[in-house]
Amino acid sequence: MRSHRKMGMFISMIFLFIFMTVMVIYTSKLMYNVAVSNSNAVMEDRILTVSAMINNHLNTAENVLHVVGDSVQHMMISGTNSERIHEFLDAIKDADSGSFTYERLESIYGMTLKYV
User: Fold this and answer.
1) What residues does each domain of the chain span?
2) Which tens digits make up the pLDDT trace of 44-91?
3) pTM of the model as a whole
4) What is the DSSP string of 9-63?
5) How far apart are the two ends of the chain, measured CA to CA in Å?
């Protein structure tokens, strides 16, 4: 009778150990999946933010070029001589030196690395 009780207790302990091991593995796998999912969501958000900043950066430079190009084209149509157009371009370069210089512009690679 005693050995039967000990054997029953021993089998119960083995099943309990197996059950706990399976539950620990299952819980660890669930936590890992949640962590990976959250990590992917964070990286997706960062990618969207950086792509919006790069798009804005490129649109700003494109808009400046369009405005200057339209101004030069208007000057050419109105018969302005090339010396005056050159002076105009120099004046634009000097006027924008405080806000749109090569030193202050960040490259696309710099912007990308800054936010990654």
Assistant:
1) 2-115
2) 999 999 888 888 877 877 777 788 888 888 888 998 888 888 888 777
3) 0.47
4) HHHHHHHHHHHHHHHHHHHHHHHHHHHHHHHHHHHHHHHHHHHHHHHHHHHHHHH
5) 69
